[in-house]
Structure prediction request, 358 residues.
Amino acid sequence: MQNIETEGFQIKEKRKYEDKQNPNSNINKILYLQIINFILILLLLFYQSKNITYHFQKYFQNNLNKENKLNEEEKSKSISNTLQKKINYLKILTNNNEKEYKGIQECLLNDPDQKFCIYHLILPKEVFGKKRILLGKKRPGCYVLLDDFKNIKYAYSFGINSNVQFDKALADKGIDIYMYDHTINSLPYENPKFHWKKIGLCGIGKKYKNMKNLEELIAENGHSKEKNMILKMNIEHWEFESIIDLKEETLNQFTYIAIEYHFRDETKFKSDNLYYNVLKKISKTHQAFYARCNGDRGIIVQFGINRICHIIEVCYIIKKGNIFKKDETIYPIYEFDYSVPKEGRLEMNLNILKLFEE
Prediction:
């Protein structure tokens, strides 16, 4: 027993002696404990920081949501105020005539994505650096283009009847006019720049006597690769069938497009959306820069939610290479508009188109 105690004492003393001889041993223990404490502190801080980050994120998210909600409310209020101003202006433009403004108001209120209203598709814009000019006398058959005919050598004119004043104005500028009308037997007079054929215009894939589609006629004249041409159509409602299936490349061959639209068939708005689709097709490649009501100005037709004059002429220029800005023009422009509404007749005030500006 005494030996065991003596041995134990000797071992303890030996360890004390070794510790004294090796002081790094204690330091290592202290460092080890400090490292463990440091790691525990880091873990604690990390946990706390996650909580703090979470609370900060929640706080900022709540504030952001409130701010977004306020912004949406302000935006909605602003849109509502703007819309109300447009409706008030619409009523002024139509002399507070509900028969005239009702359908247009419905377009403003119920067609924010502009999926059914045609007005934004024929909204004129000014073309930067280019001036509008009237080609022909102030009477039916004249058209408004821009005073820029650089590189234009050819024009296609569909629907002649007995009026060639527009064609003559282009011929005077050295432009060759390819003229088509299957309802007449001859032109009222000849001109070296006139190239007339007794052929009417129809849609692609359609077969009628003495009628062809535009792409066929362009190919026949060797103009398939031509650019910077002019297209004029006044063909009594055939314009819609003739345009709907044209290739985009074909439309892009024309710098100017002047069309007299004839809105006659309500089904073309309601069932197959032909009118809307044609106007949308042209507006993809060309921008309207002038519009006027033609013919019987008193006739305002109701097609679904669209109310538009029975006959409307729209003049376009190709979008590519041109810059456009908001049109400040007051319509109608009597400098170009060839007649004044007769007394007692209603006139579609084309300033209503500006209500659909973006």
User: Anything to note?
Assistant: The chain has two domains: 1-93, 112-356. Residues 112-356 form a domain with the Rossmann fold fold (CATH 3.40.50). The mean pLDDT is 82. The CA atoms of residues 233 and 259 lie 5 Å apart.
